[in-house]
Amino acid sequence: MSEVTGPNKEFSTSQIAKALDVSTRTIYRWIEGGEIEYSRTVTGRYRFPESELRRILEERKRKGLDKISEVILKTVKRKKIVYLRELQITLEDIFLHEDVYDECQELVNSGDLNTEIFDENRWFFPKNVNWNEVESLANHKIELMNAYINHP
Q1: What is the enclosing helix (H) or strand (E) of 113?
Q2: Per-residue confidence (pLDDT) for residue 94, from 0 to 100
Q3: Domains of the chain: which residue ranges?
Q4: How far is Cα 45 from Cα 139, in angstroms, rounded to an integer?
Q5: CATH architecture for the domain at 10-61
Q6: H/E element holding 126?
Q7: Cα–Cα distance between 117 and 28 in angstroms, integer?
């Protein structure tokens, strides 16, 4: 967080993305969709006022932290198995990454969600499913991840 002009704090694209715990691509999608207020510098760079950061954080809180469990469980059921980062990115337009992580831990602790660490990733799958039933899907997702990672 840096003070760019006068007494009003402004944030760069990467700073606001980090503060909101989303990707910079999500910020650009919000810009394109008119979902976030911004100004531009003389060199064309985006700047976001601190008030906009506060507005988005408040809106996210109002939007559904009370429904985060329901959304996570529906997403996991629909996808059959997800790794933590996949789930955070899937839900980042609604919830902060840290909130998704915290709620997943709560769902595992309460027995509403299964988890397994496999290939250095934490995986989540429905409570009525055992690991052997979803391991092949996890391996398929690992292959896809590797293809993206190694793509030139």
Answers
A1: strand 113-118
A2: 83
A3: 10-61, 64-150
A4: 40
A5: Orthogonal Bundle (1.10)
A6: strand 121-126
A7: 32
